[in-house]
Amino acid sequence: MSNKKKEVKESPLMNNIKSLAFPLLSILISIFVAVFFVIWAKPEFSLLDYPKAFVDLFDNIWKGSFGNTKKMLDTLIYVTPLLFTGVAHSLAFRTGLFNIGVEGQFALGMIGAALVGMIPGLPMLIHIPLMIIAGIVFGGLWAAIPGYLKAKIGANEVVNTIMMNYIALYLINFVVLRTAFGIPNAAKTYDIQASAQMPKIMVELSRGSWGIAIAVIFAILAYILLWKTTIGYELRAVGINPHASEYGGINISKNTVLSMVLSGAIAGIGGAMQVAGTAHNITDYVSLPGYGFDGIAVALLAKNNPIACIASALLFGALRASSRTLQLNGIPKEIISLIQAIIIIFVAIDFVYRWLGKRKKKGAIVNG
């Protein structure tokens, strides 16, 4: 009887259900708490009107993100970069690395793609793939630097990638403001060629492009890489236990650099798709776009699963897209940040709980 119970506990289905339970619970709790702020912001609601406030919040989020075809397509504008950055973070997290530099790698992918996108006379079938390659090169190389420093001298990747975000910011501003690629006195680059622009899903309704399809394809490819290849097995093994991996013959330094390069490359492709599908040029930045930092939340909610990042990015993209509708209906847009923050807190609690559980098991084994 005990063996049967053990089999049920260790079955893949039960593990998947357990892994989904906490993210779903964190979403529900975040919305539950956010409703109290709706009550506080709108005088017509009291605590007794909690159900009405809940319906009001959910209704406005839905209308602002999926209310009609145009809203749905506009939501994809936010979902696409979040999916790329979420997958980029997932690849690094799986190897035990905290790649805060996804923000800078995304931005470098944008500038690389913009420079390639300005080349005249290329057909679309060549131009767009060249922009993707530019995103891979710029993002991957930018991530390779902190990856190499981590592998060779043990330099902390968090500190290095944060510094490189600011270097990326000023490098982009230099290109925009101080080179021939920028329009004089306009604080932006020239638009990319029409052949470099990603086709829109419905031109007459929205700027939402087919870049979302590229994002989904790369999310699937990242999943296949991590769980269906030897390279992915080594990356995950290093993330789970680097000492045991090294004892088993896995090269930790190589996989550290590889993980950072792959993470940066995915982020760079996201930047390329942002230019090809939505922006079509680069402006100077006071601060970076923020998609890389939001990608952390996407990856954490998805439990570092690239496929689950699709649903996670859709959630956070929908929240971003609905902020204007919330404001127009008397609900502060900061509620979106509140919901995101509560989700991250509860997902972090889950990680701490699992870490403490592992420590407890190790202690029991040692004492036993």
UniProtKB/TrEMBL annotation:
A GO CC term attached to the entry: plasma membrane
Pfam families, A to Z: BPD_transp_2
Give membrane topology per the record.
Multi-pass membrane protein
For molecular function, the Gene Ontology terms on record are:
transmembrane transporter activity
**Where does the UniProt annotation locate this protein?**
Cell membrane
**Transmembrane region(s):** 20-41, 75-93, 100-119, 125-145, 166-187, 207-226, 335-353
- Keywords recorded for this protein, A-Z: Cell membrane, Membrane, Transmembrane, Transmembrane helix
Cross-referenced PANTHER family: ABC TRANSPORTER, PERMEASE PROTEIN, GUANOSINE ABC TRANSPORTER PERMEASE PROTEIN NUPP
Protein known as: ABC transporter permease
Q: Which organism is it from?
A: Oceanirhabdus seepicola
